[in-house]
Each structure stands twice: as C-alpha cells, then as structure tokens.
Design goal:
By secondary structure, the protein is an all-alpha fold. It is built from 9 helices and no strands.
Length: 279
C-alpha cells in the first residue's frame, strides 16, 4: 500500500517544471538565479514598452496615475498570494517535522511495552522494533525520492514480521498487556503512514505556476509604469526582484522535503534509537 501511494505521487511530481524541483536533483542557486533573471527580463521588457507609449517624453496626468494604481493593486495581490503560498508550504514542513516526534514516541512506547511480554516473543518483537526504528530514520533522512521505494519495502516487511510475531502472543495470551502492545503497534504503523503522506503532500503545481506567472505580470506592469514615467530605479528595482526571487525560492525549498536544505529534524528518532541501548 505504501508503494502504491508512492508510485502515484511520484508520477504526478515528475510532471513539475525543472525550476520547481521535478525529479531528484535541484540546484537552488541556479533556481534562484533563473527566477531573478526571469523577473529582471520581464521588468526590462515592460520598461521598454512603456517608453514606446510616449517616445521622447514621459506620460503625464491621469494615465500615469491610473497605471500606478493598477500596478499597486497587482503588486498587493501578488504579495498576498505569495504569503499564502509560503504559509501553505510551511504548514506542510511543520507537519512533517511534528510527525517525526509522533512516530518516535509511538516507536518508543511500543518498544517499552514489549518488556512486559513473557516468553521469547517479547525480546523478538523488541529487536524487530529496533530495526524498524532504524528503517524509519533512514526514510526520514533519505536524500532522494529514488531511495524511497526500497525504504518503504523495508518498512512493510518489518511491519509484517512484527505483526506476525505479535499475533502469536495475542492468541496465546489475550490479556490487557498484549492488548496494550497491539494498540501501541497500531499507533506506530499509523504514524508511518501519516509521515509517508506528509512527505507526498506538497504545494500543488497549479499554485506554484500561477504564482510565478503572477509575478511576471506584476513585475512587467511595474516596469511599464517606470517606462511611462521615464525614470529608472535600478538599485531599488534590483532589491525588489531579489526579494521576490527569495520568496519564491523559499516556497520551492519548503516544498522539497528531501532535496532542499530545510528538512525535518530526525533527532527524536535518533534519541529513541539511543535509548534502546540504555534500557
């Protein structure tokens, strides 16, 4: 089931544009440069078109005021859309980050409850949970989507092994202790599914593309306004375009749970694994 979800999601993500992180590798510096150059070119194009409106003299009066008002509205709407998109991507990052702690806690709880199981199955399940925790850590820190199928297969195999062993215990000793362990294992497995879905859930491509097109239109309109006025603001315009590029790049970064530099902290799983050897 995990593999089916991965294959469907991966097929959808593979259709993304290159500078929005389509496959396995992404040069964020090149992405930022591409975004900045795109905005710079459209701003220059808008400026030149604005100059052609009134060759040799700047626009005056109502037309310049109307263009300024419309441009301000476009910039304001773009700012609002950018903030929503950043919040959208950040929420998904925070979800992935929180689920690491949830999963680590579920694994630790299940492992501790195996100590209450009599017979050889208790240590066996504990050892399987330890291997499971390492597999989940490897899933969380995987640097490429290409590594995910093998890690999901490993997770599925360990879940099957754990559940088969637990079945022997539950049939032999159906009591409150075994019920508590069954519930802990269910929570552990459910948290793995939730984490898998969180990694697959990203900002929709339509939003990313719409935001980029909106930025081109707004920055082009700004250049057109400057062309009508016959004035250039090179430094301020460059700073504005740099900030817009940074905002778009931040969304790309947050939207790539494996390829970007902003990743979920794996420390809770590491701490859980370390506790296995201390108890």
């Amino acid at each position: 089931m995990h593999l089916a979800i991965y294959q469907a999601t991966h097929q959808e993500n593979s259709m993304n544009l290159p500078f929005f992180g389509s496959r396995f590798e992404l040069d964020l510096l090149a992405t930022g440069a591409l975004l900045f150059l795109s905005l710079l070119v459209i701003n220059e194009a808008g400026y030149r078109v604005g100059q052609l409106r009134y060759p040799g003299r700047p626009a005056q009066g109502s037309e310049l005021s109307a263009v300024s008002t419309l441009t301000a509205g476009m910039i304001g709407l773009l700012t609002f859309t950018l903030s929503l998109s950043i919040n959208f991507a950040q929420n998904r990052y925070e979800t992935r980050r929180g689920l690491v702690l949830t999963e680590a806690t579920a694994i630790g709880t299940a492992w501790l409850r195996t100590k209450l199981i009599d017979g050889e199955e208790g240590p066996s399940i504990a050892a399987e949970i330890e291997a499971y925790a390492r597999a989940r850590r490897d899933f969380t820190v995987a640097a490429s989507d290409a590594d995910v199928p093998a890690l999901l297969a490993r997770t599925n195999a360990l879940q099957t092994e754990i559940w088969q062993t637990m079945g022997v215990v539950a049939r032999r000793s159906p009591n409150a202790v075994t019920t508590a362990l069954v519930n802990a294992l269910n929570a552990m497995f459910d948290s793995a599914m939730a984490q898998r879905f969180a990694y697959a859930s990203r900002v929709p491509m339509s939003i990313m593309l719409g935001l980029f097109i909106g930025a081109l239109l707004a920055i082009g309109a700004l250049g057109f306004q400057f062309g009508l006025a016959g004035k250039r603001y090179v430094v301020l315009t460059a700073l504005l375009l740099l900030m817009w590029s940074g905002g778009l790049l931040l969304i790309v970064e947050l939207n790539l749970p494996r390829l970007g530099h902003i990743k979920a902290d794996v420390a809770p799983l590491e701490w859980t694994i370390q506790e296995f050897g201390s108890k």
